[in-house]
Amino acid sequence: MKQRVVVYKKLPEHLNEQLRAEFDVTFFDRVNDGNRAAFLESLKSAHGIIGASLPITNEMLDAAPALKIASTVSVGVDNFDLDYFRQRGLMLAHTPGVLNESTADTIFSLILASARRIVELAEYVKAGNWKGSIGEAQFGVNVHGKTLGLIGMGRIGSAVARRAHHGFGMKILYNNTRPNPEAERELNATFVSKDELLAQADFVCLMLPLTPETERMFGAREFGLMKRSGIFINASRGRIVDEQAMIRALQDKTIHAAGLDVFEVEPLPADSPLLALPNVVALPHIGSATHETRLAMAELAVANLIAGLRDEKVPHLAV
Ligand code: DGY
């Protein structure tokens, strides 16, 4: 008998076909209030699940006694309780590597957009307000030659640092659980304490995974240590930041601006004070969202799932 797979994200058709050829598959483009009951029902006999952007709770896992593997179409695994996966002996696969460069591109676009006020000024032009040459009140600040502080220096952090060093002549400071000798050698990056980084960097870029240890680790104290001219960039996870403290820091001009791709609650609620702040560039969690990268992620996630269900070596296991 074929093993059963539940897909809870829209995948490219050729991947759906690949899954159908080998497994008995139930497809959900996304899970919402309308189909949640059917999704939970499908878990009862599932051997593998694949998808993204949905917290997979321990209750859901308890409802899936035959489950062997969950494959997420993301590098982040914060939608899962890793300890519970270990306890149950379940596999959790993810998609590192293939999204490094496009996510670094997004982060760099946030750096440029917030420093040069690209979104605000583009809206000004579209609103028909460009009547003469702009004055100082609309000037931005330089990116090239400035100091970039990376909190976290893994694969994506290194890709951001490469752009900053080679393309923009920036000085790179970083803080990480361990030193990154390659970044020090090739990008002249300097390991400093978190407080020193916050005090010296013109751009503070949060590059950490969301874990119980990093949740809300960046708050009023950290914003207070940043330069008043400092720009805060976050494309990792919103819940690493105390969002209220960030809003206060932006409103009070404790920091100059922020470029954000992620938020405590996503989609960002329409009444979020962040939407009213001109010094905020807000994106809808698009870090890896290019056609090429999302395809590569989906292909990798499907390959992970198939390997797990065939009892072969899974290319990228988080647990
Ligand atoms: C990831 O891969 O973790 C991205 O943030 C998309 O969720």
UniProtKB/TrEMBL annotation:
Species name: Herbaspirillum robiniae
Pfam family, one: 2-Hacid_dh_C
All residue ranges annotated as the D-isomer specific 2-hydroxyacid dehydrogenase catalytic domain in the record: 5-316
Family according to the record: Belongs to the D-isomer specific 2-hydroxyacid dehydrogenase family.
D-isomer specific 2-hydroxyacid dehydrogenase NAD-binding domain ranges (all copies): 108-287
Record's keyword terms, sorted: Oxidoreductase
Keyword Cytoplasm found: no
Record InterPro entries: D-isomer_2-hydroxyacid_DH, D-isomer_2_OHA_DH_cat_dom, D-isomer_DH_CS, D-isomer_DH_NAD-bd, NAD(P)-bd_dom_sf
Protein name, entry field: D-glycerate dehydrogenase
